[in-house]
Design brief:
This protein has 418 residues and is of the alpha/beta class. It has 2 domains: 132 residues, Aspartate Aminotransferase, domain 1 (Alpha-Beta Complex), CATH 3.90.1150; 255 residues, Aspartate Aminotransferase, domain 2. It has 15 helices and 17 strands. The strands form 5 sheets. Strands 4-10-9-8-7-5-6 form a 7-stranded mixed sheet, sandwiched between helices. A 4-stranded antiparallel sheet has the order 13-14-17-16, covered by helices on one side. A two-stranded antiparallel ribbon has the order 1-2. Helix 4 packs across helix 11. Bound molecules: 4'-deoxy-4'-aminopyridoxal-5'-phosphate. The site of 4'-deoxy-4'-aminopyridoxal-5'-phosphate (PMP) has 14 residues, from helix 5. 4'-deoxy-4'-aminopyridoxal-5'-phosphate binds next to helix 5.
Length: 418
């Protein structure tokens, strides 16, 4: 699709991206004297004023610790904080708000499952199944619990296009597999994985499935019941909320069977020196004072996204993805890494003869923010035989004009390095 084609214009008219951009104060700034073109949303998203204001308002008017005080501020803070649990439960269609555990992000959520669910169940000879396209956050915690238990990792392959194919995955689902851990969407390739099909196969064999939803939540409607997985992790800062917020959702039966991970205040029922009894879920897993204002902000982010409508956002993003992919395919020497049929607007690429970091630095001087590097996915880089890629990752606040400006900047810097 071309920027000037009627369909892309129609998409922008329907969506009113300029009005949306007005909600994101940071997008109005310049970088190195050029208008900012922010193409690094898979790294962290920008925040709408509604989120920034809600955090500001919390500290100005409501600030108190949660669940520790009967005074008015304590009650207001607790209800503002706990409201986000309801919003998250609705956002992922969880059967119960109690199954939503607040974490600092996906990394903490996966570690919680690794140490509290997997480690006590693992023995020598057991395996954890991951895929070739995982982020380090969905590899390293499993390696750590494997080292402690004598279990090992198995890796499901992907094809050259960067797709996880169901059949080879299923072949690896042998009785030694005690848990499968798969990303919903690849942070490097943009690939959307067929989670429902994978979870059906896991369920048939009684193998629990953890899904890393970090990169899916900003783009797709998440329905943990329809997905049929056992664990779903996501991170708030990629979902237009504050950093230091995230969630683990898990089936109640798993959460009830898991011992606490962190011990401390707020997660107990009664503490005696002879022994401690623990609070019910979700609080059993939430020791200490949490990121209260952050979760209030995350609630505002969910309201914001719901207010626009995920389907509407996704329609605009898919139009941006087609436009960017087609334009980039015409750039001499440019190779896109990740050509899955089902993708979110994340485009990794290389330019022949130019180093990714050099290109990213020159693009920065043009006002264009893209990420360069291994994207916390060393094994995926090894699969493609590259040390690093450039990655342009888009969000619903990006425009077709920005894609054209990015391509023009790329052409200038490409010539400089040629
Ligand atoms: N998984 C994926 C696919 C990611 O993209 C990221 C963030 N880059 C993470 C996990 C880790 O998220 P966080 O750092 O917010 O815990």
């Amino acid at each position: 699709m071309n920027a000037s084609s009627p369909s892309s214009k129609g998409d922008q008219d329907a969506f009113d991206v300029e009005r949306i951009r007005g909600d994101f104060p940071l997008l109005a700034r310049t970088v190195h004297g050029k208008p900012l073109i922010y193409l690094d949303s898979a790294n962290t998203s920008q925040k709408p004023a509604a989120v920034i204001d809600s955090v500001d308002r919390f500290y100005r008017h409501t600030n108190a610790n949660v669940a520790r005080a009967v005074h008015a501020l304590g009650e207001e803070a607790t209800s503002a904080y706990e409201a986000t649990r309801d919003k998250l439960a609705r956002f992922i269609n969880a059967p119960s708000r109690d199954e939503v555990i607040f974490t600092s992000g996906t990394t903490q959520a996966i570690n919680l499952v690794a140490y509290s669910y997997a480690l006590p169940r693992l023995q020598p000879g057991d395996t954890i199944l991951v895929t070739q396209m995982e982020h380090h956050a969905n590899i390293v915690p499993w390696q750590l619990v494997c080292e402690r238990s004598g279990a090992t990792l198995k890796v499901a392959p992907i094809n050259e296009a960067g797709e996880l194919i169901v059949d080879p995955f299923v072949e690896l689902l042998t009785p030694d597999v005690k848990l499968a851990a798969v990303t919903h969407v690849s942070n490097v390739l943009g690939t959307i994985n067929p989670i429902s099909a994978l979870s059906r196969e896991c369920r048939k064999r009684g193998i629990p499935l953890l899904v890393d939803g970090s990169q899916a939540a900003p783009h797709l409607r998440i329905d943990v019941r329809a997905l049929g997985c056992d664990f779903y992790a996501l991170t708030g800062h990629k979902l237009f909320g504050p950093t230091g917020t995230g969630m683990l959702w898990a089936k109640r039966e798993h959460l009830n069977a898991m011992p606490p991970f962190f011990g401390g205040g707020e997660m107990i029922r009664e503490v005696k020196f002879e022994g401690t009894t623990f609070a019910d879920i979700p609080h059993k897993f939430e020791a200490g004072t949490p990121n209260i204002a952050g979760f209030v902000g995350l609630g505002a982010a969910l309201d914001y996204v719901n207010g626009i409508g995920l389907e509407k956002l996704a329609g605009h993003e898919q139009a941006l993805l087609s436009h960017a992919t087609e334009s980039m395919s015409n750039v001499p020497g440019l190779r896109i890494i990740g050509e899955a049929v089902e993708k979110v607007p994340v485009i990794s690429f290389l330019i022949e003869g130019a180093h990714a970091h050099d290109l990213a630095t020159l693009l920065d001087h043009e006002g264009v923010a893209v990420r360069s590097g291994h994207h916390c996915a060393h094994p995926l880089m090894q699969f493609y035989g590259v040390a690093a890629t450039l990655r342009a990752s888009l969000a619903f606040y990006n425009t077709h004009e920005e894609i054209d400006a990015f391509l023009a900047a790329l052409e200038r810097v490409r010539k400089l390095l040629a």
